[in-house]
Amino acid sequence: MRVRFWGTRGSIPVSLTWRDVRDRLVEALVAGSGQQLDTMEKANAFVEQRFPFSLRRTYGGHSACVEFEPGSKEYFVCDMGSGARAFGEHVLAHNAGQPAVVNVFMSHVHWDHIMGFPFFGPAYLAGTRIRIHGCLDVLEHAFRLQQSPPCFPVPFDHLAANIEFIRLPPGQTTLVSGIAVTPKLQLHDGDSYGYRFEHGGKSLVYTTDSEHKLENDVNTDGFVQLFRDADLVVFDAMYSLGDAVSVKADWGHSSNVMGVELCQMARAKRIALFHHEPANDDADIEQILRETVRFEELTQHGHRLEVLAAYDGLELDL
Amino acid sequence: MNLAKFMYADVLVLSPEGRLDHDNCAAFHSALEAYLEEPGSSAARGVVFDLGSLDYVSSAGLRCFMLAAKQARAHGGKILIAAMQPVVAEIFEISRFSMILEAFPTVRAALESISPESTLAYDQV
From the CA of A241, how many Å to the nearest CA of chain B? Predict the structure, then answer.
């Protein structure tokens, strides 16, 4: 199973500013002075070897959209944040303009998770089938509402694709085009749902916009069960633990520390920190990743968990 | 988990030992509540957690310290952390609990920041 991240930012899309770009150029020029960087190959190798991720790349700024490829002709994607625009271009290019079948799994319908749908190209291509799965009864209403005047010029009913809304029962496993899908209720304003996807002996957990109360053992046990032995857990690590239990308690999000602990209890193999705080720049996220890797080292007790920070464009093979 | 208690003048010092994690945090929390609600404890000007014998703390354990801090503040008291072992200090930093709870390198330094009486009492032991 391949997992492709199209949008990894939390709450609202962000982008680099002109100052960010200029500062990186300046830093790169200073670092490269005196080096024999007279070909693209040499310059490319220098950048890859010498610069930290936060200088040579970016975690990106699109809101939640994560595709997984189980090896089927159909497409599978979690959430329709602003990353869905680029995902739509990928679908159209990959399908050479022919209609596709796209299975969408919605965590919830807060704006940052649906805002990419009006810009999702396949929705405008006749013959495309889009099956939007979720557990919330407001699913269809939210998608229609954001394409209602005066918010957007193209009404939902003008979309050319065949679009269905499919309710999934929480806590039960449903087979969707050969994928075993288990949604789980999460703590978030208006409710959200995490998912466990299983196919071909591989398992992916997508759990975003989910707060974990430390005092709630039932909550902990339920998520340990959802994460059990997962090959990858995509985890809402928006805040620090300190913030999540104090000034940002009840804001509906979790932390890197909580993610590592739950994954350790569940003996999951990999965690991808996700739903990055929009106020954090690339250097901040890189620092959080370093600290999370260290936290895992300090606390691993015989089970090794690989820790990474998701970024727009990241592809992982499970 | 063993939780030793010392009173230095107007400051209560609590010293947990071993590991504080998901498995024993509820018992630790109950023990703390009992200490913090004891007559006399609420009159203390502060509580210092001496973490010199604490080997490990998980997120659930950190939350206990935060709840204790809330409870102490309700009585107008202070909660301070002291003498953390390197691993526990790193966990405090990574989880940003260092932004929530004030920490000192030694118990004496923590007492000194609360009252001269408690420091004097500590020095006399």
Answer: 5
Q: How many domains does chain A have?
A: 1
Give phi and psi for B81, each to the nearest 5: -110, 140
- Residue A58: strand, helix, or coil: coil
Q: Is A54 on the interface with B (CB under 8 A)?
A: no
In a domain, A157, yes or no: yes
Residue A72 lies in a domain: yes
Domain extent at residue B68: 3-124
How many structural domains is chain B composed of?
A: 1
Tell me the mean pLDDT in the region B35-64. Answer: 83
This complex has an ipTM of 0.89
Q: How far is B120 from chain A (nearest CA, A)?
A: 33
Q: Residue A50 falls within a domain, yes or no?
A: no
Q: How large is the average pLDDT for residues A272-284?
A: 97
Which run of H or of E encompasses B15? strand B11-16
CB A117 within 8 A of CB A146: yes
Amino acid (1-letter code) at residue A98: Q
CATH of the domain at B58: 3.30.750.24
Checking if the pLDDT of A55 tops 70, the result is yes
pTM of the entire predicted model: 0.95
- Answer whether B60 sits within 8 Å of A265, measured CB to CB: no
CATH of the domain at A80: 3.60.15.10
Residue A259 counted as domain residue: yes
Q: Which residue has the tokens 């979720």?
A: A134
Chain B residues close to A295, C-beta within 8 Å: 90-91, 94-95
pLDDT band, very low/low/confident/very high, at A113 (cuts 50, 70, 90): very high
